[in-house]
Amino acid sequence: MSHDRDVAHQFGRTAARYEQSPVHAQGPDLALFRASAERLRPRQALDVGCGPGHVAFTLAPFCETVHAVDASPEMLEIVAAKARDTGCPQVICQEASAAHLPFPDAAMDLMTCRFSAHHWRDVAAGIGEIARVLRPGGTFILTDSVAADDPLADTHLQTIELLRDPTHVRNYSVSAWMALFAAHGLAPVRTDHFRIRLAFDDWVARACATPERIAAIEGLLRQAPAEARARLGVEDDGSFQLDVLTAECVRRADR
Q1: Is 78 helix (H, G, I), strand (E, B) or coil?
Q2: How confident is the model at residue 197, as a pLDDT?
Q3: Are 112 and 55 in contact, with CB atoms under 8 Å apart?
Q4: Are the beta carbons of 148 and 157 closer than 8 angstroms?
Q5: pLDDT in tens, 211-236
Q6: What confidence score (pLDDT) does residue 15 get?
Q7: Residue 15: exposed, middle, or buried by beta-carbon count in 10 A (0-12, 13-18, 19+)?
Q8: What 3-state DSSP class applies to 211?
Q9: How many CB atoms lie within 10 A of CB 190?
Q10: Does the structure show a pLDDT above 70 at 125?
Q11: Please, what is the angle between helix 123-133 and helix 174-183, to 10°?
């Protein structure tokens, strides 16, 4: 099975959990998504890796059309049902991966991606597609968990993320994101950094982690060096802190 199909399967079986997750339904970054959409009033917006639609419905009151794209049909079913139930015909669902967006060049005024990119097998291809589909002068907003700046903490973070969810690829560093943006003609105009607390039991349950994988994560966290535990803010029950980046970028007209 390919990675894209693995991702679709994983999030298909956990779709309802992500819809109900406070970590995903809330957050200071959603205010930025809303404020940007209200300011820009885009005709065409596209949320890549939309999940259960938290960003799409945040944008919807200010957009003519919001395209909600995800690799998981089950996630899209949740979005489509909510669009019907809440009277949001401007939210249109389409199944696709980030690396192959089914839209023409320069078609979108606003593009967004929230807590999805760390599952992409080829993040450069995904950002390249976003830059292709975004019109010159258009806005792209990314929110994603980022790698710890300490290599020791980063190694432990990537390991527990992969043990919890085998479709995890990598949390990228802030500098790696800045390099990706620059390589694809996306100029950051604002960045925000915050931390979220992940309650251990909810975190592993949301991904349907197996008992064996949960035990492995618990063992790794118990045995982690004090420096790694401190950087990740590991608590006695295994809950920890995750660094998050929100970056608002404009597509340069010369690309």
Answers
A1: helix
A2: 96
A3: yes
A4: yes
A5: 999 999 999 999 999 999 999 999 99
A6: 64
A7: buried
A8: helix
A9: 12
A10: yes
A11: 50
Assess contact for 238 and 218: CB atoms under 8 A.
yes
Contact 65, 41 (CB under 8 A): no
Cα dist. 190→41, 147, 231 in Å?
A: 18, 19, 25
Dump pLDDT digits (tens) for 241-253. Answer: 999 999 999 999 8
Average pLDDT for residues 115-140, to the nearest whole number?
97
The CATH class, in words, for 3-147+168-196+243-251 is alpha beta
| Domain residue extents for the chain | 3-147+168-196+243-251
Task: Please state, rounded to an integer, the average pLDDT across all residues of the chain.
Answer: 94
Question: pLDDT value at position 234?
Answer: 97
The burial of 6, by beta-carbon neighbours within 10 Å (0-12 exposed, 13-18 middle, 19 or more buried), is given as: middle
Residue 93's identity, in one-letter code, is: C
pLDDT of residue 1: 55
Q: How far apart are CA 98 and CA 116, in angstroms?
A: 9
Rounded CA separation 241/22 (Å):
15
The answer to whether 172 and 116 are in contact (CB under 8 A) is no
Residues making up the chain, counted from first to last:
255
Of 173, 63, 164, 78, nearest in space to 117 by CA: 173
Name the nearest CA neighbour of 176 among 147, 142, 150, 143: 147
Kindly report, residue by residue over 75-101, the tens digit of the pLDDT.
999 999 999 999 999 999 999 999 999
* Amino acid 255: pLDDT: 64
